[in-house]
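Appendix B. Raw example, untouched.
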Amino acid sequence: MTGLGKKGTHDGIRIGVIGSDVLVKKVGKVLKGFPSFDPVFSVYRQESEVPVLAKELMNEVEVMLFGGPLPYRQAKERIKFTIPVLHLPMTGTGLYRALFRLRQEKPVTRLTVDTLSEQSLESTLGELGESGLMIECYNGPDPYGKEALIRYHRDAYGRYGDDHCALTCVKSVAEELTRQNIPNEWVVPTEQDIIITLERALLSTETRRSKEAQIVLGFMTLDDSGRLFERTETEHEVQKLKLDIHRMLLGYVETLDGHLTHLGGDEYMFMTTRGIFERETGGYKYIPLARDAEKSFGLTLSMGIGFGRSAGEAGTHARMALRQAKEAGGNISFIVREDRSVIGPLEMSQPLEVNLSLIDSQLIKKAENTGMSLAYLSKLAAQVARKGRTDYTAQELAAILGVTIRSVHRFLLQWMDTGLVSIVGEQRSQSKGRPKQVYRLLFIDDQEENEQ
């Protein structure tokens, strides 16, 4: 039995995830796009372990997510839950994916199915225009028993031969059928199925409901507005342009049901509620306002958003977030949360290529202790988000940070000593000379998979 996974280190909504290793890794990857969650992972080898794991986890989390209907039902039969409990569906895009793969691999005329209902399967097949398949759904006395399901599919294969394929929602059943050379498809939830379920889980928690009305404060500044105003010929046109920009910002804040204040110069402040802001940013992923500003005026924005237990705390955090956005080069946004952990960077004109949803407050402290200032951390996080790369040479890092090669080498020695950076290879140049070492930024690498 695999025990509880590593607990989160930030002040988020605790969610317990119980499933097979494959599904837990898939959920862990998608959870990076849900910075409100603080996940605790628990992996089982056998379905029979699920009730014990769920009982251990129940008092540690606010909501629990199971990797499929089978472990969910096993736990529900044995445990009286006092928290919201959900499972990943097997009837969404994952079912379409399994049927598509089935059709691509070999033609079959008969399908034996477990866990899924005949009605849901026929509905999906009808939408796909599949009318030639004969379907048999398992309705035996032990709907959760691995051996019973394997025997059911094996007997069908014995009757129908290669015209048959098994469709199962249980990983261990699929593995055993594969070992016995029985054609099968394992129905695995897709990323979209997981996103929808996590959204439902988020809405079911008490913490989320209590934070829906929390005040969010944000600061916005226009990047290099002087260049924009220089293109106008008269002061009258400058004033009209400023009014047009103000009207655009006012329209955006109106979509947030918020309040906008011009602080003078190129700076604006807005207030809204956390629930609305989360929905309008797609779960803190991007700011659609910036796309409109760039399209309408050729203008980019920097934005800092603050969460806090009071309006004063939210304002302090918003100012910190704006400073990070400016230090990262502008045209980007950061969110500083109650515990001073950082969400971001949020891409301003389009969704990020790479999701860097949370920079932990402990990581920020660790980085600062090794000479990596918030300015450097912001620039590196923004670079990775925009380029989708975590591997760089010292020369590239010097250009990103705006420092000398000598300074970068000094930083790299400190960062490697504390495990923030590692050497992963060499880059050979076409000209003669020593190859350049390639460094990986571990603090924004995909560490969730390593933890699991």
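End of appendix B.
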